[in-house]
Write a structure and sequence with these properties.
The protein has 199 residues and is mainly alpha-helical. It contains eight helices and two strands; from the N terminus they run ββαααααααα. It has a two-stranded antiparallel ribbon with strand order 1-2. α3 packs across α7 and α4 packs across α8. The protein is elongated. The relative contact order is 0.14. It binds fe (ii) ion (FE2).
């Protein structure tokens, strides 16, 4: 049934009371339809956090030879960050720092950084983007790569924070017996941070 068939709008009412547009080309859309799309988009913002939580849960299926699965590793990293007194954005970034592995292990740092970028301050995004090179201090030598690759970033305002993240939280968080808060512990913070429309 037409929601408002006055020639100005193509929107139709749906069973749940929303008024979806019917345009099939954007050049035939109306301002009224876009107002409704914007309203629904804003109302559905909580979907972002639920998607993040779903991606995190999927990391439980990725072990790839480590002593812990990747969800445990992420939870343990965030646990160490929280116990060290990190702020909320750093805790959530620690929780999500390897979320990119749900898509591509090889490119996981930049993927995670782009997921976080709209929701956290720039230095936190930077930390996640380069975290693998800082982590490399502890294992790059096994591949013949430069364990001091992080030195390229000396002088960056987030250098010390990223070094702490890598050395004190991330690289030690592969312990099946290590303290690990459950995902439920972090869920309210995930919903708060990813509930932001934009940082
Ligand atoms: Fe990690």
């Amino acid at each position: 049934m037409a929601w408002k068939n006055d020639g100005m709008s193509n929107a139709t009412a749906t069973a749940n009371g929303t008024k979806n547009a019917t345009f099939t080309r954007m050049d035939q859309s109306t301002a009224e339809e876009w107002a409704e799309i914007g309203r629904q988009n804003f109302a559905n913002q909580p979907r972002v956090a639920e998607t993040i939580l779903s991606m995190l849960r999927s990391l439980a299926d990725i072990t790839d030879g480590f002593a812990t699965d990747q969800l445990t590793h992420c939870l343990q990293t965030a646990t160490y960050a929280e116990k060290a007194g990190a702020d909320d954005e750093v805790i959530v970034a620690s929780l999500c720092h390897d979320i990119g592995k749900a898509i591509s292990v090889s490119n996981h740092g930049p993927i995670a950084a782009e997921i976080l970028r709209p929701y956290v301050r720039p230095d936190v995004t930077w930390m996640i983007n380069v975290h693998q090179d800082f982590q490399g201090k502890h294992y790059y030598a096994h591949f013949g790569a430069d364990p001091n690759k992080r030195d390229e970033y000396v002088g960056h305002p987030a250098f010390d924070m990223t070094a702490q993240f890598a050395d004190e939280w991330d690289q030690i968080a592969f312990d099946p017996d290590g303290e690990t808060y459950p995902l439920e512990h972090f869920e309210p913070l995930v919903r708060e941070i990813f509930g932001r429309v934009k940082y």
